[in-house]
Specification:
Blueprint: E1 7-8, E2 22-25, E3 34-36, E4 42-43, H1 51-60, H2 62-77, H3 88-103, H4 114-123, H5 132-158, E5 162-170, E6 176-185, E7 191-200
Antiparallel strand pairs: 1-2, 2-3, 3-4, 5-6, 6-7
Length: about 210
């Protein structure tokens, strides 16, 4: 029987213990054909997917399969713990996402989009993204109440004389809205502008009573 060509390790980082039992021929520079180190069978593993590798061990090399499974379970146990409330770092991240959402007019389901979740996972693998209902039912209403309270206190303390304007505008989806804005000068002679309310402007109200009345 001809001597088999020596197999080399897979290039780059490998996260699975199964690669201990597979390699590539030295002559296979592009590493296109994965071979079993035990029986030298070529196993299909597109894009370095390990499913077929595990299946090969399970069907042909039970001892090595059990070893690979056990090692993978140990790796899972030592993964860094995910952050949960009320950890201060987790709280800062949630607050940042909450503030940015209305500023960017983000959709309420942004946090469940796969790309966004991958970005967050890259920034901090320990952070557990809250469910979308956390933002729509808790975080955003709390942010609204906080902002409204600050505006009320500022206006009550400084706006002895003021002017108001109304603006009719359309969203990116061409939905009509009307906003009421107050303008005043504070004690330090700084011009202040605050939006007091924005309401959906129904077509049936045009030319009639303002929806803010």
């Amino acid at each position: 029987m001809a001597e088999q060509e020596q197999l080399v390790k897979k290039k780059g980082k490998t996260n699975s213990a199964v690669w201990k039992y597979f390699g590539f021929k030295k002559s296979d520079v592009e590493q296109n054909k994965v071979q079993c180190r035990i029986c030298y069978t070529v196993v299909s593993a597109p894009h370095a997917n390990t499913t077929n590798l595990f299946n090969h061990l399970k069907c042909n090399h039970k001892v090595q399969y059990d070893q690979a499974i056990t090692h993978n379970k140990k790796q899972t146990k030592v993964m860094p713990p995910r952050l949960h409330p009320p950890h201060h770092h987790s709280h800062r991240l949630r607050t940042h996402f909450t503030v940015q959402r209305p500023k960017r007019r983000a959709r309420r389901d942004t946090e469940i989009l796969q790309g966004f979740k991958q970005l967050v996972n890259t920034l901090d693998k320990r952070y557990a993204m809250p469910f979308r209902h956390y933002f729509s039912r808790s975080a955003l209403p709390a942010l609204y109440d906080k902002c409204r309270g600050e505006v009320e206190r500022d206006v009550a303390a400084s706006a002895d004389y003021f002017a108001t304007t109304t603006d009719l505008w359309s969203s990116r989806t061409m939905e009509p809205y009307i906003s009421l804005t107050i303008h005043y000068i504070d004690a330090d002679f700084n011009l202040k502008t605050k939006c007091l309310q924005t309401a959906f402007f129904l077509k049936t109200t045009r030319g009639k009573t303002s929806p803010m009345d």
